[in-house]
Amino acid sequence: MKKALGLYAAALYTFLHLPLIILAVFSFNSSKFTVWEGFSIRWYAAVFHDPDLAEAAVNSVEIAIVSTILSTIVGTACAYGFWKRRDRLLSGALYLSLVTPEIVMGVSLLAFFQWTFRYLHWRLGLYTVILAHVAFSIAYVVVVVAARLRTLDSSLEEAAMDLGATEWGAFRLVTLPALWPGIAAAAMLALAVSFDDYVITSMVAGVDSQTLPMWIYATARRGANPSINAISALLVVFFGALVLLSERLRSSES
Amino acid sequence: MTLRFWFLLPTRVWLALLLAAPLGVICAYSVLTRGAYGGVSLPWTAENYARFFDPLYAAILLRSLLMAAVATVLCLLLGFPLALFISRSRNRRGLYLFLVILPFWTSFLVRIYAWLFLLRDTGLVNTALLGLGVIREPISLLYNNGAVLLGLVYGYLPFMILPLYATLERLDPALLEAAADLGARPMPALMRVVVPLAGPGIRAGSILVFIPCVGAFLTPDLLGGGKTVMIGNLVENQFTTARDWPFGSAVSLALMVIVVLLVILFLRRGEEAL
User: Fold this and answer.
1) What is the pLDDT of residues B136-148, one digit of tens each?
2) Total structural domains within chain A
3) Of the four, A58, A208, B30, B36, which is 20 to 30 A from B69 by CA?
4) Nearest chain B CA: its distance from A124 CA (Å)
5) How many domains does chain B have?
6) Residue A21, domain extent
7) Any CB–CB contact under 8 A between A193 and chain B?
8) pTM here?
9) Together in a domain, A246 and A193
């Protein structure tokens, strides 16, 4: 029984990881086709010399950084507010943002922006993407920071206030310092979901604001292109490093 | 005003403007008429909802529910033994969990593309089979229900494994020993002792897999290639190519109703994360 379970686990882990490993291996293939012809880094060179791809990557990084900063601040504040006292309506709204299918969120934001732009003479662009990303990232931040807050003792803040600290002072000097690992883990999750999003982004991005996932999608639809393998391998390494870092932070919590 | 008020305010404003208001716009659009050049116009109508009964669209709705249900069951069957394995492991739990979480952090689009790379006509599987002489010409592995199902299971399996693991981990191993002492063989003991106690994990995992599956867009789009159309593709199509925003809005709302009802039915008090 135990042995069978171990074999099964090995098989399932292979299923989960092999496709990505193969993808990465073939990013070093010198041939354009899926036949191994020899080791080469030409696709990595191609990735770094594609101006469209560079622009998309820069856009993605910009969007991810700005929306991560915003959603981390807004979400951390919200989690702290909940810690003081729950709010049924607001937590309901956060749940709604978590379960709303991406495509529905995308089209509803598109419809909303178009409707607003009839009155304001604005256009879709990077900032609409950032607004949307913050909207769906807040809930992730709240969940992660709230989990960290649950491990804290609220009587410490009360003690600080009995000793004359203001509400803000108690937050900043007592709770916030203990919250940093949770906030950092939340920010990394927000960064990952923002950087990865295609569905919502493609709906609300302006013509001049292509992102990395949009480039991958468009290129993948046109057919095989080893450049996607190369960029995918880079992304896997990047996200792998991010999750390792986040796991470190999580284990430093307990 | 208290600190709590100001701390909750940004989230309130953000969600009111970028979640509630957009959903409100969709509600309004769903009962309007399609405009001549895209967009919407008066008069008000219930026509968009009546179209759900058109066999073409009813089939898409049913297919989405069915695909999501099958994907959920497959995730449960595949994920349960692994969650059990991880929870029984003594000193490598961290590593095993990390290996489950890693693909979850990896770009979803990249993971779908990996299957495209393997399964397309000129992909690795076909090339290998041709090279080995097993087949004479490429067999089409993509653009069918099976490929979409594979993508859904692959994409959302971690969502099933993690909550399953969380409940199995808390299970007292003495329970299985007691069952064995009383004469139960391993499989029946598992089915009658462990599975019922894993109820909360099974429920949470199923909902976490079913919801993204039923509203999936990327997986059926890339692996189904327009042949396996799900609700998500219908919505996208109405808002882009077909330019029928009112119907797209009505379909979006139908999807929202399905999802919200499921969450209310499945998520019990006391299991909240917020």
Assistant:
1) 888 888 888 899 9
2) 2
3) B30
4) 14
5) 1
6) 1-40
7) no
8) 0.89
9) yes
